[in-house]
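call fold(seq) -> tokens
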Amino acid sequence: MIGVFLMFSRLVLGTEPPLADSDHLVGALVVTVAVIAMAEVARPLRFLNAAFGLWLIAAPWLMDGGTGITGGIVGSVLGALLIGLSLPRGRRSHEHYGSWDRFVV
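ret:
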């Protein structure tokens, strides 16, 4: 949901390029990585979303096009949420993936 919200940040928050373009791109990447990381052997990709969360925290303060302090706060909150949601490991299924088992984190 965070990625989808980011893709509509221009409409919801009134951001302008280049920040709006950054939010749109990162939103699409967040959704893509989250869907790929649903596969148990691709779980480590969730840490990539944590990196995107760090960018979301920094972007409003580094790029033009934000809506003032409100945009910075929203970006920071969404980034922190994305990092927090990307870190938990989750339950592992009873299935085994041969030599790939060591990569399931």
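The helical segments are 2-7, 9-13, 19-36, 46-62, 69-86.
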